[in-house]
# Entry
Amino acid sequence: MPDDRMRPLADVMAPIERAHGLPNEHYTDPATIAAENKAVLEATWAALAVGADVPEPGDAKPIEFLGQPLLLLRDDDGAVRVFFNICRHRGMILVSEPRKIEGAIRCPYHSWCYSKAGRLVATPHVGGPGQNAHAGIDKATLGLAEVRSHIWRDVVFINLSGDAPAFEEVHADLLQRWAEFEQPIYHGGADSRFTLEVATNWKLAVENYCESYHLPWVHPGLNSYSRLEDHYHIEEPGKFSGQGTYVYRQLKGDNGAMFPDFAGLSGHWDAGAEYISVFPNVLMGVHRDHAFAIVLEPLAHNRTREHIHLYYPVAETDDALRAANTAQWKTVFEEDIFVVEGMQKGRSAQGFDGGRFSPAMDGPTHLFHAWVAERIEAAR
# Structure
């Protein structure tokens, strides 16, 4: 369905008391979703990966995002960069699997070579046998095409369209909200990352994460101490939404070990924690002693890969405690799978009109629906 034939979304942007959710085709129809992706994922600051995916200079990881072949790379100066993963000569894929690049990035087709900063540095035989230069090939204009990127809390955000306002401008309110956490964070390592393959549209993962309404029935263990009534809504129209709790309980190991706190936090965080969906596709959580980021990778209209990463205030933490924390969060996030997969199946029901929202409980989820609809309408 072309852009101009997409159903008007006024009902989605209506006040929550009478709003409907996004129509079924935004979860089931690849053509509708392709048009949506341009407005919602390509024209904004979407999450691609985390810096910990390329921890050392020279580390490179190819990533396909919305069908675009990209290369995540840490250059010789330690900066994380994102390039289109293609040679400027004939469009050959440069890096086919994660690896460390010791020298230059060499195209496997004709051996054109690029520095880790993206400069074209060698063009063997381009002027004929033994002639490595040609007047018609200007190396200075043929470097790798770099994708606009920004790193916040180790998450690598990209703006594929290249014309979004600056990240700091778009997310000024969120940066201020979590200003106390603007301090070094350390990825927990191999035992602090995991991936979940989920048969759902990525938006349903965001919608579910935004709200605490489902806790009593989907997360009974978590709800046993962080009850529904212990939560509050986080609502910033057009930017982000989520939930917070007043009763975060720190994990304690069998030996009494606990994670150290982030430095200088105010009293709110003694027992408080917040879980925010940073529109469009990253889910973040902060606590006094650890944080996490979930990067949602859209694979198809009904498939999403969730990349979960846990972070700590210090580089070295107790191994057993760290493993227990990862296991605890994995259990929580796995409990959500049947819900988001069930909603995806439900979007095949012809009689479903997008659903309604509880004015008291679904505010954060309604904000996300409205934001998606506003992006689409603005792009038409």
